[in-house]
Design brief:
The complex is a heterotrimer of chains A (301), B (134) and C (131).
Chain A (H helix, E strand, L loop, with lengths): L2 H8 L1 H11 L2 H4 L6 H21 L11 H17 L3 H9 L2 H11 L3 H45 L3 E4 L2 E7 L4 H18 L3 E8 L5 H17 L2 E5 L3 H10 L7 E2 L3 H11 L31
Chain B lengths: L1 E10 L2 H17 L4 H20 L4 E10 L2 E10 L7 H5 L13 H7 L2 E7 L3 E9 L1
Antiparallel strand pairs in B: 1-2, 2-3, 3-5, 4-5
Helix pairs in contact in B: 1-2, 2-4
Chain C lengths: L5 E4 L2 E5 L6 H18 L3 E5 L8 H16 L3 E5 L3 H10 L7 E3 L2 H15 L11
Parallel strand pairs in C: 2-3, 3-4, 4-5
Antiparallel strand pairs in C: 1-2
Helix pairs in contact in C: 1-2
Classes of the chains: A alpha/beta (301), B alpha+beta (134), C alpha/beta (131).
């Protein structure tokens, strides 16, 4: 055990008292946390830090001796975030331990080189520990955002059954890799569930198509093809068509249509169906066309 | 990152590769990975286990459940004491076409996981570590 | 050693893969299929993989090999029932199985085989399934 660690371990009680006493009101936040809870947190944190520093005083914080401290900091971060502390307040809570530690070092070390070493060691350590609290806070927020994003994505890409065996997937908004995953899964599962051989992916609502978006679309189309379903891309605006050609994206293997109605007509045709106009007088026929019920021509998009 | 659970399986025969796949499937299910993520992980495990057997002359798979910051993951480590890979960069390129059987499937496996690292020494062996977060 | 059973349906072969195959079993299947095509002069092979939860590069190559070898022997191959998670993983893996025709299920797969049989001009071509 290093001299720094030994000094801290020996003076644990007075350090803790000093830390609590000198915690400024801004860090204490009586409104959010009781004195008793604060005492508990400082006590646990200090002893876990001592546990770590006894084995390794470097600020690398690897090695199992530091795990209790790291886990405790994560818990403290999470619970304080829930209670309404800002991440800065939590980080400062950890940093406020510096002063009591410096005081103790000053009292016990007379040699100036040794004192300097002690101060830099403590500084590096506590800086790293307080950064951990910020990282933990951000990780929790990020996880929440990811979950909300997921829900949003699932809500915003419905798969619609246009006809027996023909699905439509209107995409509104940007298509990033996370969304593509959800879109792919959703589409393919519906393909299986409805036994649909055709899926029309409409990109009227996709603002830009760059190489990445094209790649995502191609992945979806390839996956569908592997399963035995054909995809048609519709809603290709003139600007998009230009971009695609300029970027040199190869869509020769893909059927594309400017309008959803054209794509639908093609899918109907490819699935052996045709559309008949009902004769005046209301007579209709089911034979030959293979349609379950008569249908009028689709409206213009 | 802390390791919550750990298990090791030998990779000495082709039945071991099947057993390894099924064990990874079991753990991924227990951890409640989504079906697609499970499939990706088990497929990567199958590729890498087979590599260790066919190219690495047999080896070992270690499975670990790890805890990161606010997330859980499944880590798989494939080690063999085979001839090692001389040119790792080449090996990571997508070398296979269906039918020719070339390429070690490493580049593909990398795309199936969140984290991928490879250490290899010619004459000593290879160690590949992959991880997928839930 | 256990083998994947190959059923004969007239001019076609029907193979349902329901077990998690180890490599030797997959190689055995490749051999068996080519043998059977020769024995029975089959002109179509239907492989049902709806029970397969994993298709890795080895299995993928097996499927592509069966399709290629069958074609040389004059038979069309259709793979049916691929699960969505499997398709997504294969695409990420970089395998698109070129040369392998696919269909959603056994019915549509058989329809494809009937169509190519009719195109070949063999058989009466009258046994069509209504869409």
């Amino acid at each position: 055990m290093s001299k720094v660690a030994e000094i801290i371990a020996r003076n644990e009680n007075s350090i803790r008292a000093d830390w609590l006493d000198n915690m400024s009101n801004s860090i204490q936040r009586d409104d959010l946390m009781s004195k008793a809870e604060l005492r508990e947190q400082t006590s646990q944190l200090l002893s876990s830090i001592i546990q770590g520093i006894k084995v390794d005083e470097s600020a690398k914080l690897d090695g199992s001796a530091w795990n209790p401290a790291k886990e405790l900091l994560q818990e403290i971060s999470a619970s304080r975030a829930r209670q309404g502390f800002t991440p800065s307040e939590t980080a400062q809570f950890v940093l406020s331990l510096k002063q009591p530690l410096f005081s103790v070092m000053r009292r016990e070390i007379s040699d100036s080189d040794e004192l300097f070493h002690a101060v830099t060691t403590i500084t590096a350590l506590l800086d790293r520990l307080s950064l951990l609290t910020s990282e933990a806070y951000m990780a929790t927020r990020e996880e929440l955002i990811a979950r909300q994003q997921q829900e949003l994505i699932e809500l915003s890409t419905p798969v619609v059954k246009l006809w027996e065996g023909i699905l439509a997937l209107p995409i509104i908004g940007t298509l990033d890799s996370a969304r593509t995953q959800v879109v792919m899964e959703s589409l393919l599962q519906t393909v299986v569930a409805t036994n649909s051989k055709f899926a029309i992916i409409d990109i009227t609502g996709v603002p830009t198509v760059d190489t990445l978006v094209a790649q995502h679309l191609l992945k979806t189309i390839t996956a569908a093809r592997l399963m035995g379903a054909e995809c048609i891309i519709s809603g290709v605006r003139p600007q998009i068509a230009q971009t695609i050609v300029h970027l040199g994206i190869d869509l020769t293997q893909v059927i594309t249509k400017a309008k959803l109605s054209d794509a639908f007509a093609l899918a109907l045709q490819r699935s052996g169906r045709t559309v008949v106009r009902i004769a005046a007088g209301g007579s209709s026929t089911n034979k030959g066309a293979g349609l379950p019920t008569p249908m009028t021509a689709p409206k213009e998009e | 990152m802390s390791v919550l659970k750990r298990e090791q399986l030998p990779l000495k025969t082709s039945s071991d590769v099947v057993a390894a796949r099924q064990r990874v499937r079991q753990w991924a299910t227990d951890l409640r990975f989504s079906l697609v993520d499970q499939t990706k992980l088990v497929t990567a495990a199958s590729e890498l286990a087979r590599n260790a057997l066919d190219h690495g002359q047999g080896g070992l798979m270690t499975m670990e459940v790890v805890n990161g910051l606010a997330k859980t993951g499944l880590r798989l480590i494939f080690e063999d004491t085979g001839p090692g890979i001389a040119d790792i960069e080449m090996a990571m390129k997508d070398g296979f076409t269906t039918g020719s059987g070339m390429g070690l499937g490493l580049g593909g496996s990398k795309r199936l996981v969140n984290e991928f690292s490879i250490e290899s020494q010619v004459g000593k062996g290879t160690k590949i570590t992959v991880l997928r977060w839930k | 050693m256990e083998r994947i059973p190959i059923l004969r349906m007239g001019d076609f072969l029907l193979i349902t893969i329901q077990v998690d195959m180890h490599d030797k079993l997959a190689m055995q299947l490749q051999d068996d299929v080519t043998g059977r095509i020769a024995d029975w002069a089959s002109i179509g092979v239907l492989i049902d993989i709806s029970s397969l939860e994993i298709v890795d590069s080895f299995i993928g190559r097996m499927l592509a090999n069966i399709a290629a070898m069958s074609r040389v022997l004059g038979a069309e191959t259709v793979v049916v029932g691929m699960q969505p998670a499997v398709a997504i993983t294969l695409v990420e893996l970089g395998m698109s199985l070129p040369g392998v025709r696919t269909a959603l299920n056994v019915e549509s797969g058989m329809e494809l085989l009937y169509q190519s049989r009719a195109a070949l001009g063999t058989g009466t071509g009258n046994e069509r399934i209504e869409a």
